[in-house]
Amino acid sequence: GPCTECSCSCGKEADKDPSHTKKKENGDQSCVPKIFFGTRTHKQITQISRELKRTAYSCVPMSILSSRDYTCIHPVVSNSSNRNEMCVELLEGKHGKSCSYYHGVHKLTEHHALQPVCQAWDIEDLVSLGRKLRACPYFAARELMVGADIVFCPYNYLLDPQIRDSMDIKLKDQVVILDEAHNIEDCARESVSFGVTESQLRAAREELDVMVNNNIRQEHHEPLRAVCCSLI
């Protein structure tokens, strides 16, 4: 028989409650879990959303999480090499400027083309609509995640704890699907790895030398200096 918990049931409208909370007969509350679908690349997300359009679940509330590299449409920030930092500076108004695209997010999240009654969409659809409405696709996708039944994203959004926190992704009691899961080891390794050059190591060692020689928190800085020396 038809499912009764999700928004596709019998063609009824999506639950307006962003937490998708359903009340039981005894008055308790139970949350319908989201499906987090992780892929290796953004291109694969496009392929999967295309397949979703062909299923009976094409109109289910959804969202696609991706980096600013793919979704930022600010004319200055999008052409910068450090989009994340520039975006944060604009949002904080550090230089007396703000992002008008961010303030127009509601125009994108409330647009009929992204509502559950319409078909599944992909990143290109979201960015194209964002340019048309002058609204930020990056933050719109995060807003849409709140009421989504299924959320597509790259692996590292689910595996990297720092990204999970920054994107406010809560995986407890949710459904997680990992496409081509044999790539998970490499992704997990990358999420806890860091690249550093020899010149950076030498600069760090010089600074640590000054700290140790001037007896500044020597018990902490001396072991760090030893690590730098051994790596060099």
TrEMBL record:
<dbReference type="GO" id="GO:0003678">
    <property type="term" value="F:DNA helicase activity"/>
</dbReference>
<dbReference type="GO" id="GO:0005524">
    <property type="term" value="F:ATP binding"/>
</dbReference>
<dbReference type="GO" id="GO:0016818">
    <property type="term" value="F:hydrolase activity, acting on acid anhydrides, in phosphorus-containing anhydrides"/>
</dbReference>
<feature type="domain" description="Helicase ATP-binding">
    <location>
        <begin position="1"/>
        <end position="228"/>
    </location>
</feature>
<dbReference type="GO" id="GO:0006289">
    <property type="term" value="P:nucleotide-excision repair"/>
</dbReference>
<keyword id="KW-0547">Nucleotide-binding</keyword>
<dbReference type="InterPro" id="IPR045028">
    <property type="entry name" value="DinG/Rad3-like"/>
</dbReference>
<dbReference type="InterPro" id="IPR006554">
    <property type="entry name" value="Helicase-like_DEXD_c2"/>
</dbReference>
<protein>
    <submittedName>
        <fullName>FANCJ protein</fullName>
    </submittedName>
</protein>
<dbReference type="InterPro" id="IPR014013">
    <property type="entry name" value="Helic_SF1/SF2_ATP-bd_DinG/Rad3"/>
</dbReference>
<dbReference type="GO" id="GO:0005634">
    <property type="term" value="C:nucleus"/>
</dbReference>
<dbReference type="InterPro" id="IPR027417">
    <property type="entry name" value="P-loop_NTPase"/>
</dbReference>
<dbReference type="InterPro" id="IPR010614">
    <property type="entry name" value="RAD3-like_helicase_DEAD"/>
</dbReference>
<keyword id="KW-0378">Hydrolase</keyword>
<dbReference type="Pfam" id="PF06733">
    <property type="entry name" value="DEAD_2"/>
</dbReference>
<dbReference type="GO" id="GO:0003677">
    <property type="term" value="F:DNA binding"/>
</dbReference>
<dbReference type="GO" id="GO:1990918">
    <property type="term" value="P:double-strand break repair involved in meiotic recombination"/>
</dbReference>
<keyword id="KW-0067">ATP-binding</keyword>
